Structure prediction request, 595 residues.
Amino acid sequence: MGFAAFMAPLYYASILSLLSVGITLSYMTTKVFNFAHVRYATVAAYFAAATMLTLIVHHHITLNAATRTIGGIQYIMPLPGWIYVVGFVVASIVGGLVSIFLYYAILKPLERKGLPPLALMISTLGFDFLLVAFLFIFMSEKPIINLAAKASSIIGTVNFASLGLDFTDAYIRIGNTMVRGSVLGALVLAVVTTIVLTFLTRKTKLGIMMRSSIENPNLALVLGVNVDRVFAIAWFLAGLIAGMAGFLLLFGTSFLKFISPTSPYNSIVVSVFAGSIVGGIFNVEGSIGGGFLIGLIEKWFVPWLAAVLSMPSLIKYNKVFSMFAVALTLLFIPEGLASIRFSKFRKKKGGGEA
Amino acid sequence: MTLNDNVVLKLENINAGYGKFHVLFDMNLEVPKGKITVLVGPNGAGKTTTLNTIFGLATIHSGKVYYRNKDITKVPAHQRAKMGMAYTLQLFNIFSSLTVKENLVLATYDIPESEAKKRMEEVFQLFPRLKERLFQKAGTLSGGERQMLAISISLVRKPELMLLDEPTAGLAPKLAKEVFQAIRQLGDQGYTIILAEQNAKGALETGDEAVLIASGRIVAKGKASELLERKDLAKMYLGLI
Prediction:
């Protein structure tokens, strides 16, 4: 397996872990499975793409295919760095805002009316349909592609395809391979998100308020915690992380190929929920690990198995393996992999040997 | 509205409940500073709803709640906590999955660390057993210890007004006595406490002032010791005779 082929499943696994953690964050706070969560990524990607393309058109930015070096590391960055930064920031904020809109405009009013979590869950499905309709009306493929075409007419002077590279993703040389920036970005973001969320939930005042509000909202409330606001922050964070994943998805296969109001929901949502459940629906770090695991099962284990069994069609059924992992988890460790006390296990093993 | 200096809290013509459900009717109540006011009455009388109304957890249909000369009728619950009120709930009043120490740390999340430590030591003087259980999961404590922790969670916040909802519920008589003694000790230290209790005898022996509630209405009020002597009320509402 080449290095690039080795990295591709890691990219998918990282994206899944970023989306799974959002499902877990929203579920932990409101006990609602948010069916619209993955669509945040689509909406965020649309806004990011539209902003980046508009900036390219407005500033007459031309592509730079030159290989540059920084600190001994070779890289190619076709667009100016700030364009990527703007796209990333826009995607993150849009993801967060869409999420907080769902929380305050739909879930809270329904909750105040006394509706049970099941009804709230169905309302998230309704909101998902609403987002798709919004994308079809205002930002469907045609306007985006038109904008892309206009941008291409300005920047498309270099035939990147002949170089075997996608035209907007950045590349960094690792060994003999040029690795996609989005792949490395996804990996780094998954690691950073895990560290930041762990620190936030365990070491900060907000984290303490979040943990107390999740465990016992009424008690947190009488201790002076604004539980509503804390939950809203958790929902914003979930959306923010989904927005980041959306930005990275823009570069997934080929820039803008991802863009369609129904992408990547139909295929990815099952895997995202699987990641959240397998890792631990009540554990932030667990869900990140779960998403990663499901990603590796689908993009690494299943292709390997297909090759070993000489059954290439098996790859088409990779989601079945995710569902199988969910079934096993719910049967044997309902609270997910994060609930396993490995330290206890080690002690027992040690005791046995003694 | 100006309250008498000795009055911490006042309920004025309160009609309250949960949503459209009406529980309290025309309730008027004054809570004196530095005293233990006991709310007694039969099951379902509205004792917990009275506490919930004071803390902003119930729906007020009409009437006003005044606290330290301020109308707090529309102030949300979390802000009342910041105004110096503390509420020990009857159920789910501790963070079971956390240790005793973590529970107390959570309760002091908005207080500087050095001050929080000092307050914890003060709490341990009242409930020394909690110090022995510091690193034990709260969910594994005995019933009495849980109630001690629940009261401590309120106490470390140094409240000006403490609401205690049935702190002896489900406890063995000996443990209940210990909890009542601790509450009396707090009263002697100058804390203003509203104690809602099913165990009328223990509560009336502990409190200074008493209010008897039945069917959402105040039936009688006065000195706790006097109410304890009222055989008619004791027989009709409190099951003491």
